[in-house]
Structure formats: C-alpha cells, structure tokens
Amino acid sequence: MNTTAQPEYRSVSLNLFQSAFQVFVRGVLAVSLAALLLWAGRDYRPTETEVAVASHRFNLLAWEVGNVFDKWYHELVALLPWNSPLPREERIALAEEFFRIGEEERRLEGELLTAGDASPQAAIIRQRLDEIHERLNSIRPIVEQTVEREISDVLMAEGFSSRIGAILPPVDTVLGHAPTLLVTSPRDRIFRLENTLLRHGIRPDDREALEQLTLDERDLSAIVVNIGGVGTFPSVVSSGSSLHHALTTVAHEWLHNWFFFHPLGQHFWDSADMTTLNETAATLGGWEVGDRAYEAMTGIKFERQPPSPPAEQDPNAFDFSAEMRETRLRTAELLAQGRVTDAESYMEERRLELLEHGYRIRKINQAYFSFYGSYATSAASISPIEGQLRDLRQRSETLGEFLNTVAQFSTYEEFLEYLGGESRQDEGKVISQPG
To answer: What is the spatial distance between Cα 374 and Cα 280, in angstroms, rounded to a whole number?
Structure first.
C-alpha cells in the first residue's frame, strides 16, 4: 500500500443553521418512514415463509423507532454551544479503536457458538464481550458522526451538496449488528424471488432448519446469508468489519438511498438486470467514495487491483472466480434442460471441490446464485454489467458525473443504448483526428 499522505477531503464547515437543517431532515425522514411502515402494516398478510421465520425476524419498525430518534438526540446534543467537538485526529483514533474491538467481538461471538453455554470458556468469553459492548456503546455516537462526516466530505467534493451546502439525503448510519437475509429462488431457475430480513447471529443449525423448511413446504431453494449493511434510514452497517470495509459499505448504502430519488433506484426491482445495475453501481461508487474517505482518514491509499487477464494468470493456479463462474454456467445449463436434481447435486459437488481448495462456503444452491449473482462484481455473477459500468466510469471525468449519469436510467435497455451511442461518438472523434 502507498502510505504517502494524499490531499484530504475535509468537510465544508457547516454553520449552525445547516447542521440543524440536516437534523431536521433526519427527523422528517424518520417520522415519514415510521408512518409508512405502520400504514403498510394495517392490512398485512404474512406469507408462509414469513410465518415460519417469525421467531427470527428482524423487526424493522422497532429498529427504526429505537435508533432514529436516538441518533436525532445525539445530533441535537452535539449542536449545543457548550459541547466542544473532539479534534478530528481524536475522532479518527476512536473510529480505528471501534472497528478493532468490533472485529474482536465478532471473533469471540463465533467462539461462543462452539464453546457450549455451560463451559468455563464460555463464561470468560461472555465477560470479555460485556467489556467490549460497554466500550463500543460509549464511543459509538462519535464514531458514527465521524464516519458520516468523512463520507460527506468526499460527496461534497464530487458536487453532491445541495444549494445550502448539505448532503441530501444526509449520510446517516448506525454501526452495529447487521441483520441476516433469507433469500429464496425457484428451484427450476436462478431468480431472486423473496428477501426476508432476519435478526443477527442466527446459528448454523437454525439456518439449515429454515432453509429446509422453505424447501419442504414451498419447494423453493433458500439460503440465509450474512450481509454487511441495509439501506434503511439511517442505514445499518456491521461494526464487526474493518474501518475500510465500513466506509465503503456506508457509502454503498447511501448511494442506494440517493438512487431512490432517481429513476435507477425507483426501478430497482423491475428486472434482474435493473437489480444488478443498481447493486453494481452502488458497489463501484461505494468503493471509490469509501477508498477516498479511508485515505483521508489514515493517509493510506487503498490499491484496488483489476482482475488479471487470463493470459497473465498461472495456468496451474486455482482460480476461484473462474471456477465459480463455470459452476454458475453449468448449473444454468442443467436447469434449462429441466434437470433440477442433477443441478442441485452438481452444485454440492462443486462446493466440496472448493472446500478442498480452502474456500469454505456453507451452501451453494439456486438462491445462493440469485443473491450473489445480483452483484456483477461477485464471482457468482455472469453478468456483463460490471464491465459496462467500468466503461462508463472511464468515459466520465468525475465520480459525480458517472453516478449522475447512471442514476437517470429507468431500464437496462436505456443504459445499453446510451453506451452504444457514446461508443459511436467516441469512434467518430477518433476517425476525425488528423493522422
């Protein structure tokens, strides 16, 4: 990594009115979201899957009520004139500590699952976890504000601030335990059918039971996956990751919130291609924003290496991405032939082969590919959208121009048409140049 200090994207100093305005916007969005959830719940009809997973469900409304107004309170307290803000260097140091002990928390929680509730080791782990929870809770508000401010700095530098100098929607996140997600797919094709948020920390045997119950009762492929964040308002992002990963995830989730006010986000679920376009644009944009915020905070430039061309790879080396894409293609081929059982057996065989090479994947099935395949940057995807978006990014002078361009597409066909038109314009420019 290049540790040479780079220009920092410091925040524009907001006056009291601007800061208070952002707090007001957060409050309005919180009240509106809570009202919407309550209204939608008046005539709620749970599906069979939702009934089966009721004891594991993530209560979104309770989470919103319990977190949004708490953050609003901390924001208002921070604006009081007798509360002097900590220097930036101290806030960054707290953020680094927060994620360092957050990673320890995640490791200890994993050990606790295997230790057994009655073992002496479990008691020691619980005591340390209590200490970690107390420290995390004491510095969490400061760390959240620091992360939000650093992400906002980059966004402002890219021209995302409004006329009054504020980011809309505000960058707002809660750092804690991200929920898990139950994803279902038909067995005869790879298609992301349903997404159900579940609580954090579901045990492996409970995951298996939920997936099997979905298969037995509804004849659907199902998988419970861990996720790094959810684009609620405020977003929820895992505190058990690194500082760098949290920054890119917060930026990713903010982009989903921002896309919601543009055609791209409003047509998220119209098709599998539009879902992939949304997720991949948020991923690439989130990477760039998060990388720059991380560099501004730590002075460390995060180097992202593009995938090596096949000709440059060691022919004898195991290529996980290539193997996973081959698995996806062969699975789709078997399903297209109506050989569902053969496809499922093949996916399990491939999972065991990957395990022999050190890649521990709990389950590979249709639901697995339907979820991870919606991110074109994933090895589980066979979509060309990542390359297409990278092409558009190269043609864009700035990140802001790239994101504002992609946000305007309401269909995948519009996106392709735009790329084609731009390509023809570029070719014309090349031809017209003197030789």
So the answer is: 8
The answer to whether the CB of 290 falls within 8 A of the CB of 244 is yes
Q: Which amino acid is at 325?
A: R
- With H, G, I as helix, E, B as strand and everything else as coil, classify residue 384: coil
Spatial contact of 371 and 362, defined as CB atoms under 8 Å apart: no
Torsion of CA 48, 33, 66, 246, to 10 degrees: 90
Span 104-128, mean pLDDT?
Answer: 84
Q: Evaluate whether 184 touches 193 at the Cβ level (below 8 Å).
A: yes
Residue 79 has pLDDT above 70, yes or no: no
Q: Are 183 and 194 in contact (CB under 8 A)?
A: yes
* Residue 58: pLDDT band with limits 50, 70, 90: confident
Residue 225 belongs to what H/E stretch? strand 220-226
**Distance separating alpha carbons of residues 198 and 87, to the nearest angstrom:** 38
The answer to whether the beta carbons of residues 190 and 369 sit under 8 Å apart is: yes
Cα–Cα distance measured from residue 24 to residue 229, given in angstroms and rounded to the nearest whole number: 24
